[in-house]
């Protein structure tokens, strides 16, 4: 299986966090309510959004004043979980990462103050940029360079939908299974086409914790794998009453030597807690049973992907074998092939 080893460099930037005073705008809001945007700042915000890069704010200001000024400037919708308080900037960035459910090492912080940048860098693995460099911000090596996919262009909107889900969950009074059932979730599993490959490649680059190999694949590599007769490349998507999560999972399975072997399985962190992984594995187990094959899976341990190992174990995989860095897991014959009742499956009825 051709793939790229994980890079030793920091991962792709998923969120740009902006300071406000003398960064996004010229001047200090608390001293002059008529502050104006820095030249090029609004354009950078809109271009980052189109690339699928999330954005937030970490500012030492009054929250109400910040909200009013961003509304006036027509930019408030671009920023997720903005933080305006007198806490240390590193504290604010840590909260933003937690709210977005992403690693702090995927944040990029823009601030005019050398002190604030140094404070953040001393506490978190965050890349920091001087606001004087806004004009060249989009050329930062951590930011995506490929043309945006349809999923990327809707990323902010999907996080806003997630915010409404979380608010609904917090006020839901019943058991968790009833909450999940009330979402009316529909899980789609289908064979990938050439049109899916840009997003599929993007998933391999962006997904770290929920990736069974830690490897990344280019569009061309995925195309070659997809066209091999023994392979099936599947894309997984999810939608519910609050909206469409888009393409959130990828599976590469190969039929070989009496087995249906899962060579790659990954999921977006946005579907954690929805039991999507278990549902996908139950579907693959059904397909293997229909064809008289044993279901097996490759797992290549990284520093962060233990959650995917637990997905396999909870689905009934065991009987580990080791081949260098790759661990082989086999589905136990008596493992249940049941999907969560709160998920409606819409899937291809066969694995090619």
TrEMBL record:
Entry-linked SUPFAM superfamilies: Acyl-CoA N-acyltransferases (Nat), HAD-like
Domain of life: Bacteria
Name under which the protein is recorded: HAD-IIIC family phosphatase
Pfam families associated with the record: Hydrolase
């Amino acid at each position: 299986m051709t793939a790229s080893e994980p890079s030793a460099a920091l991962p792709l930037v998923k969120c740009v966090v902006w300071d406000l005073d003398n960064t996004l705008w010229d001047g200090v809001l608390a001293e002059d309510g008529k502050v104006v945007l820095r030249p090029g700042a609004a354009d950078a915000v809109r271009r980052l959004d189109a690339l699928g890069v999330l954005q937030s704010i970490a500012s030492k200001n009054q929250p109400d004043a910040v909200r009013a000024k961003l509304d006036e400037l027509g930019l408030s919708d671009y920023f997720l979980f903005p933080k305006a308080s007198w806490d240390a900037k590193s504290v604010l960035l840590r909260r933003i990462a937690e709210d977005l459910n992403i690693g702090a090492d995927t944040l990029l912080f823009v601030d005019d103050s050398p002190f604030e940048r140094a404070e953040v860098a001393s506490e978190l693995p965050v890349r920091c940029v001087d606001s004087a460099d806004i004009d060249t911000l989009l050329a930062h090596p951590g930011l995506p360079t490929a043309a945006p996919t349809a999923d990327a262009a809707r990323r902010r909107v999907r996080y806003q939908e997630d915010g409404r889900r979380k608010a609904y969950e917090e006020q839901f009074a019943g058991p968790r299974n009833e909450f999940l059932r009330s979402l009316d979730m529909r899980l789609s599993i289908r064979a990938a086409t050439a049109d899916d490959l840009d997003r599929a490649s993007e998933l391999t680059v962006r997904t770290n914790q929920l990736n069974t190999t830690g490897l990344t694949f280019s569009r061309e590599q995925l195309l070659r794998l997809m066209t091999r007769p023994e392979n099936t490349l599947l894309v997984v998507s999810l939608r519910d009453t609050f909206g469409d999560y888009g393409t959130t999972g990828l599976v590469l399975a190969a039929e070989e030597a009496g087995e249906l072997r899962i060579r790659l399985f990954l999921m977006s962190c946005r579907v954690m807690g929805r039991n999507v992984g278990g549902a996908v594995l139950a579907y693959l187990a059904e397909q293997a049973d229909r064809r008289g094959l044993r279901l097996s899976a490759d797992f290549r341990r990284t520093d962060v992907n233990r959650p995917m190992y637990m997905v396999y174990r909870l689905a009934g995989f065991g009987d580990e074998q080791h081949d260098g860095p790759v661990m082989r897991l086999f589905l136990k014959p008596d493992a249940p092939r049941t999907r969560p009742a709160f998920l409606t499956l819409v899937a291809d009825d066969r694995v090619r």
